[in-house]
Design brief:
By secondary structure, this protein is of the alpha/beta class. Among the domains are: 17-31 and 40-166, Rossmann fold (3-Layer(aba) Sandwich); 417-514, ANL, C-terminal domain (GMP Synthetase, Chain A, domain 3). The chain is 27% helix and 24% strand. The protein contains 14 helices and 27 strands. The strands form six sheets. Strands 3-2-12-11-13-14-15-16-17 form a nine-stranded mixed sheet, with helices on both faces.
Length: 515
């Protein structure tokens, strides 16, 4: 067995609730802004703490506590943090719901999670009202005002302290995995999981007093929830929320709010690298652009970094891992890699066919172990045992390589590798190359079944305005960089590449369109 350990020092994991850890700055910096939308809603650390504990008291007065589940179906607004931590203080569990879901998808999650209360915003009230039919949800509250709806302010009561729960065992949040293979699954994360992962980032991103982070990535997704909402507030960084990402609006907030940390997914980095809008704003406050949720190609990262004049780095994680296990240490980036294993993380690179551990430089499935590993999947022991083995290793399903300096590159998903004439063709490698083509704005690659060779690599391309490109031209471009079996065999132009809210390519939609 070859176990790759983190080059960073281990950290102590505080035995506290996630809310105590996130609000730890409130005593020292009560008047500093903790979270704002940059316009109408702003909370200092003292105000945030007060609102959290008063809402927790109101929830408790209504009989909400350990064993109770509340759903939050909302975009990024400052009040999201209040609701999230009020539930945690009351000893309950939050399930975070994608607000763009249809009523059926929302209903499935509410039923699976066992939710009895739901919070939403006026824009999604109609869907929420339809979704709770036939569920155990008896109360629907609104962050905002709308006729016939109960405002969330009515939940506020006398403040209470943290309800006693076992921080190592109590499930505080139930985000749902993306469900690219089968139905979405509730990921059981404990207070300790969340606290551990924030603590584990101590030696990676070194925040300084007076910093501000842009929170455009959705809080319902683990990246936005933990790295932005919880991680930034816990480190005294002002969180500036965006309910929906818009490049112009984001750049405007960077200029107005003096944003130092821009957290992104690859499509956002693509905009930073190529959009003419970037030149219109003063972005001199930025210290770093941090990308996650999907692989970011080295060329695109370097293009964006050169244009922005700051480091553009990336990390790696999964909802099941709370979420970060690998990240780039400031000033030590290697373009194209996801950085090093963070503190308290162990890794293995395992050949999926032989089960043999691989040394540096060789491909294999990434296995990880540490204090951030989920408790398991809700109501799904079979899926849990398929993902976490008896020794505590999480089998990520991602194909990785570790280099001689301890930096990891995620090169593909095991189930997404294209088998062409017996060779394995990684879609991510082709996508990272094709996105550098001057006429291609975005791209996704899938395997199309073929009797003769197994699968044919097919590229779906979104072209630059007014551009045109042929299969021959794409093949000539690819052949300059990759071996012949890693070649695009089919090409289709589409208006936009389908992606999840976290920026992951929805390959299943592309496969369904082909079949």
């Amino acid at each position: 067995m070859i176990i790759h350990t983190s080059p960073l020092p281990d950290v102590d994991i505080p035995d506290v609730s996630i809310t105590a850890h996130v609000l730890r700055m409130a005593a020292d910096s009560p008047d500093a802004v903790a979270i704002t939308d940059g316009a109408s809603s702003t909370y200092t650390f003292a105000q945030l703490s007060d609102a959290v504990h008063r809402m927790a008291g109101g929830l408790q007065a209504r009989g909400f506590g350990p064993g109770s589940v509340l759903g939050i179906m909302a975009p990024n607004v400052p009040e999201y943090a209040i609701a999230f931590h009020a539930v945690a203080v009351a000893g309950g569990t939050i399930t975070t719901i994608n607000p763009t879901y249809g009523a059926g998808e929302v209903r499935f999650q509410l039923q699976d999670a066992g939710a009895t209360l739901l919070l939403t915003v006026p824009m999604f009230l109609k869907v929420a009202t339809e979704a709770i039919e036939g569920t155990d949800v008896t109360e629907l509250y609104l962050m905002g005002e709308a006729e016939g709806a109960t405002p969330v302010a009515s939940l506020f009561g006398e403040p209470i302290d943290q309800v006693e729960v076992d921080f190592a065992d109590h499930v505080v949040v139930l985000p749902y995995s993306s469900g690219t293979t089968g139905l979405p699954k509730g990921v059981m994360l404990t207070h300790r999981n969340l606290v551990a992962n924030i603590a584990q980032m101590e030696h990676v991103i070194r925040y300084q007093p007076g910093e501000a982070g842009l929170a455009a990535l959705p809080f319902f997704h683990i990246y936005g929830m933990q790295v932005l909402m919880n991680g930034l507030i816990a480190n005294g960084v002002k969180v500036v929320t965006m309910p929906r990402f818009d490049l112009d609006a984001a750049l405007g907030l960077v200029e107005e709010e003096k944003i130092t940390r821009f957290f992104a997914v690859p499509p956002m980095v693509l905009g930073l690298a190529k959009s003419p809008q970037v030149e219109k704003y003063d972005l001199s406050s930025l210290k770093m652009v941090f990308s996650g949720a999907a692989p970011l190609g080295a060329d695109l990262a370097q293009e964006a970094a050169s244009r922005m004049g700051v480091e553009v780095v990336q990390g790696y994680g999964m909802t099941e891992l709370s979420p970060v296990t690998h990240s780039t240490v400031e000033g030590e980036g290697r373009p194209g890699t996801s950085g090093v294993a963070i503190s308290n993380v162990e890794c293995r690179i395992v050949d999926p066919e032989t089960g043999e551990d691989q040394p540096a430089g060789e491909r294999g499935e990434l296995w990880v172990r540490g204090p951030m590993v989920m408790k398991g999947y809700l109501n799904n022991e079979e899926a849990t045992t398929e993902t976490i083995d008896t020794d505590g290793w999480v089998h990520t399903g991602d194909v990785a390589i570790i280099d001689e300096a301890g930096h990891y590159s995620i090169v593909d998903r095991i189930k997404e590798l294209i088998k062409y004439n017996g060779f394995q063709v990684p879609p991510a490698e082709l996508e990272a190359l094709l996105i550098t083509h001057p006429l291609i704005a975005d791209v996704a690659v899938i395997g199309v079944p073929d009797e003769a060779v197994g699968e044919l690599p097919k590229a779906f391309v979104q072209l630059m305005p007014g551009a045109a490109v042929t299969l021959d031209e794409v093949q000539a471009f690819v052949s300059e960089h990759l071996v012949s079996y890693k070649q695009i065999r089919l090409l289709e132009e589409i208006d936009a590449i389908p992606k999840s809210a976290s920026g992951k390519i929805l390959r299943r939609e592309l496969r369904d369109a082909v079949n």
